[in-house]
Design goal:
three-stranded antiparallel sheet, GAF-like_dom_sf
Length: 78
C-alpha cells in the first residue's frame, strides 16, 4: 500500500535525495528547477528538505519531504 504523494525519481527533489542517498534542500519548491516534474502537485510549497529513508545496509525505502507553505513567513533568530 502506498501513502502520501508519489513523484517520479527522475527530475525531482525527492528523486535526487533517493538516488544520492543524502538529504537535498530547496529554497522554494514553487521556483526550484530540480522539482520540475513535481510542479503540479507542489506549487504551494516553499522551502523544503528531502531526506532519503532506508536501512542500515543502504537499501532505499522512500523519501520524507518536509516543506513549509510558500505563503508562510520564514522563521529564524530574533
Amino acid at each position: 500500500m502506498r501513502r502520501g504523494l508519489v513523484v517520479p525519481v527522475e527530475g525531482s527533489l525527492s528523486g535526487a535525495a533517493y538516488k544520492g542517498g543524502r538529504p537535498v534542500t530547496s529554497g522554494g519548491l514553487a521556483t526550484d528547477a530540480l522539482h520540475g516534474s513535481d510542479a503540479g502537485q507542489l506549487t504551494a510549497l516553499g522551502p523544503a528538505v528531502a531526506v532519503p529513508l532506508g536501512t542500515a545496509a543502504g537499501d532505499g525505502r522512500g523519501v520524507l519531504l518536509l516543506a513549509r507553505a510558500a505563503s508562510e513567513r520564514p522563521t529564524g533568530p530574533g
